[in-house]
Amino acid sequence: MPDRTPDDGCGQNKKADAETPLGRRLLWFLGLWLASVLALTVVSQIIRWAIMP
Known about the structure:
Organism: Orrella marina
Pfam families: DUF2474
InterPro entries: DUF2474
Distance between the termini: 66 Å
Radius of gyration: 22 Å
Low-confidence stretches: none
Transmembrane segments: 26-51
Order of helices and strands: H
Shape: rod-shaped
Keywords: Membrane, Transmembrane, Transmembrane helix
Number of domains: 1
Oligomer: single chain
């Protein structure tokens, strides 16, 4: 593809290539945060149910 050249003069492709890992990292961070919050909520609920008769 001719528009995927590393240097096309305006640096647009370089900017896109630099932003893609940041977005992926942000998605990973959000996913891990959501998973940890969900796990903490489930664990706290299980502990509460185990303590309460």
